[in-house]
Amino acid sequence: MKIIQLLPGAGNSFYCENCLRDMGLVKALRQLGHDAIMVPLYLPITTDEASSQTPVFFGGINVYLQQKLALFRKTPRWIDRLFDAPALLRWAASKAGMTRATDLAETTLSMLHGEDGRQAKELDRLVRWLAAEEKPDVVHLSNVLLAGMAHRIKQELDVPVTCTLQDEDIFVDLLPEPQRQLVWDTLAERATDVDAFISVSHYFKRFMCESLKIPEERIHVIYTGVRLEEYHPATSSSEPPVIGYLERQCYEKGLHVLVDAFIILKKRGNIPGLRLRITGGKTADDDAYIEEIHRRLSESQLDSDVEFLPNLSREDKLTFLQGLSVMSVPAVHKEAFGLYVIEALAAGVPVVQPKQGAFPELLEITEGGLLFEPNNAESLAMTIESLLLDPARLRQLGTQGREAVLANFGVERMAEEVGHVLKEIVSKGRY
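Above: the chain's sequence. Below: its structure in token form.
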């Protein structure tokens, strides 16, 4: 089966859960014998997980220019090609505001309007390329914010369009009103053009069924998987104990909550030598937030107890996980999944996560961690402390979590289930 996966590039500046899932899925689908092709949108794909040799479509600079200036909606391709140069796109991605939700409300609506939006010529180019170069059996969208492309793709190629649902609400809910509600309404309209959805958790399926008025039978739940053979637990426990954080260093992921909990724990002094290690990268928009984090640590005289590591390579990330006693990413919003939870548990590291979103669902399956009250540093500190003061329980949770992940969260299993859904949709033959 020939599968086209349309996915936004992230510019490789931070830990992107959705990017890692999509690229891991494509690689696993290929290993199962499918002709799966990644087609990057907005920015190049430049991670160590996978790379794409296909051209970038809807280049971020062209999308911006076509949104702001009518002239660029009619420029010839040779001019547009200049702005799609990979080096220029990577430079643009490094600038603050290029992917800031609050600045992208009108562009988001335009993209959802598809063939009637200001980026219509970009959609024309994509459809022509798919028809001429890579005529697929099915086109799969990385997220529902790309649903504006579905109608035109189906109309011109006569193939089904499917879509993953994964954390789109985080972006949409940052948009200002009235555009925020307009985006939700338009998403609900455009969702009718999609033949099937794949949600990364039961929690998020329920949420999107209600938000987009999608019938339950059109959404299949398939958990995200990882390459299990790469994850190994540490041969000995961390001494002194180490708390880890693996995600983008931003407000939405709750790094400030973890830092406040760490300060509380250090003031109590019940866990001698306790350290905090932070990795996952950032964007230019996160700089002010991270400066504030450093200020809090400095005022508490804890700078030397905290390590800020760069956005690690895959190999370094695996080593990072092996050096942790416990991990926590106390996201302030309700997460659709949380790939970092599965990565930590695969390495035998128990987790402490907020009691919201998909985390209760994941920890019920894995039995690899504890829950705390969301956005409550005191609750987080108490929960982490209870684990670190009970080494036997810490080991038990790590072992249980690893065994559950090995049994249920392999990338091969994810690819097999996705492949089955796509094959079923293709076989129906009505698009």
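The chain has two domains: 2-225+411-428, 229-408.
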